[in-house]
Design brief:
Elements (H helix, E strand, L loop, with lengths): L17 H7 L1 E7 L5 H12 L4 E3 L8 E8 L14 E9 L1 E3 L8 E4 L2 H20 L3 E5 L8 E2 L2 E2 H6 L9 E10 L3 E4 L5 E11 L5 H12 L3 E11 L2 E2 L4 E2 H12 L12 E2 H6 L4 E3 L2 H8 L7 H13 L12 E5 L5 E8 L2 E7 L4 H4 L1
Parallel strand pairs: 1-15, 3-13, 17-18
Antiparallel strand pairs: 1-3, 1-16, 2-3, 4-12, 4-13, 5-6, 7-10, 8-9, 10-12, 11-12, 13-14, 18-19, 19-20
Length: 361
Amino acid sequence: MCASCRLLNATVRNTITLAAAANEGAIVLVDKTADWTSHDVVARTRRVMGTRKVGHAGTLDPMATGLLTLGVGNATRLLTHFVGLDKVYKATIRLGQQTLTDDATSPATASADPARIAEVIRGGFALLNSVAADFCGEILQVPSTVSAIRKDGKRAYELVREGTTPELTARQVTVHKIELAEPELVVTGDGGVVIDVRCLVHVSSGTYVRALARDIGAKLGVYGHLIALRRVRVGPFKVADAVPLQTLDEQARRVSEGLGVSARVIPVLSAAQAAQKLFPVIVVTADEAIAIGHGKRPSLSRASAYMGAAASAAPSPTPHTHHTPLAAAVSESGSLLALVEIKNGIARVITGFPQSKREAL
């Protein structure tokens, strides 16, 4: 079987050095700790990788912890296709208090009537589960007021700082699942009573878990906000496979002191490895690779018959808006050349990944 006919089970390069990551592009998974901004993590990664060409595929609030997906070098082009991936979070909702930010980064602005709190406590897990179920499926959600949503040419949080309360438009999002743990009664420092509920939430891109906490509390009549949030998965990428932020920070210090970085403690995914988790893979011939690199549309009619099965067998729903499924075109040496759309046997490059001189030879 010719190399160009290997589909789905095509093998991509399994290892990549840090030097190659900066030169050829790579994906880095980082487990962010609280009180760090996403920009802080990007800055440390730039230092470790020795390049300024580092970006992320979606921020985490400073309070939140967990998975941050970063692109290095040419792999930043792949991040566009990460943005639409579903996300899974572990969260803790506090029922009984309202805050301006819908999380614990701002003080409580209102507290629920103790009598209503008592009613919710009597309702127990069954009541909470019933209300949470009302927010599953496709819903219209008004984003949290203190957010990066643009309104009248400014970010919503900028308007709040100026003393304005922006009216944000509801957006359609999908909540695939909310799994609740048993509620826990908590006495606050001022003697008040609140209810903490841990949960696992699987949502579409663009969903504000803070807003979910706010809305669940509102429906119960007791207010609600988040006191903890941890992102554990983005599409097929898991926080269990991420490098701890502490390790990344330590390696950044080594770079600042003129010491080397250990590749063993900073695991990275090649662009091809990451693409293989999202798209079916087509290994192309040398001539086809040259054509793709020049932006031409080579005939890959032999692959068309496989694309339907490939799309359904892909490890994760392909995060793009094209009606025709995309495939990852990979060279015989295992490098990602492009994401292509194959229609009527002709491959059209949707996102190209320029190759290093070594790879191009």
